[in-house]
Amino acid sequence: MAMEITQALLAAQSPDGQVRTAAESNLKQFQEQNLPHFLLSLSAELVNEQKPPESRRLAGILLKNSLDAKDSFRKEQLTKQWVTVDPAIKSQIKEALLTTLASQVSDARSTASQVIAKVASIEIPRKEWQDLIGKLLANMTTKETPASLKQATLQSLGYVCEEVSPSDLEQDQVNAILTAVVQGMNQAEHGFEVRLAAIRALYNALDFAQTNFENEMERNYIMKVVCETAVSKEPEIRQAAFECLVSVASIYYGVLEPYMQTLFNLTANSIRGDEEQVALQAIEFWSTVCDEEIAIQEECAGTDEGNSVLHFRFVEKALHVLVPVLLETLLKQEEDQDQDDGMWNLSMAGGTCLGLVARTVGDAVVPLVMPFVQANITKSDWRSHEAATFAFGSILEGPSVEKLAPMVHNGLDFLLSAMKDPSSHVRDTTAWTLSRIFEILHSPSGTIIDQSNLPKIMTVLLESIRDVPNVAEKVCGAIYFLAQGYEDAGSASSVLTPYLGNIITALLSTADRADASSNRLWSSAYETLNEVVRCSNIPENANMIGQLLHEILKRLGQTMELEIVSTDDKERQSNLQALLCGVIQVIIQTLNGSEESLPVILQSADQMMVMFLRVFACHSSTVHEEAMLAIGALAYTTGQEFAKYMPEFYKYLERGLQNFEEYQVCSISVGVVGDICRAMDDKVLPYCDGIMSVLLKDLSNALLHRSVKPPIFSCFGDIALAIGEQFEKYLPFVIPMLQGAAELSTQIECTDEDTEEYVNQLRRGIFEAYSGILQGFKNAKADLMLPHAGHLLQFTEAVFKDKNRDEGVTKAAVAMLGDLADALGPNLKLLFKDCTFHAEFLGECFQSDDDQLRETATWTQGMIRRVLVS
Amino acid sequence: MAPPPDHRRPIKRAAISDQQRRREVALRLQADRRSDAQNRARQLASSVLSLGPEPATEPEVEPEQEMSEASGQLAGRSDLDPVRAARLRGPEVRKWFARQLLLPEWMVDVPPSLDRDWYVFPRPSGKRCFVVSSNGTTISRLRNGSILHRFPSNLPNGARTKDVSGPASSYSILDCIFHEPDETYYVIDMVCWRGYSLYDCTAEFRFFWLNSKLSETGASDPPSQYHRYRFNVVQIYECNLAGLQASYSGQVPYVKDGLLFFNKHAHYQAGNTPLALVWKDNVCSQYVLDTDSKGQIPSQQQVVLELQNDGNLTTSDDPPVALGSLSRDLIAQSGLRVGNLVRVAIKDERMRLVDGKLDLGELQLVGKTNHSRAFADTYSKVLFQHAARHAPLRIEDLVASIQSNSSMDNSQALDVEMEG
Question: Do A344 and B71 touch (CB under 8 A)?
Answer without folding.
Answer: no
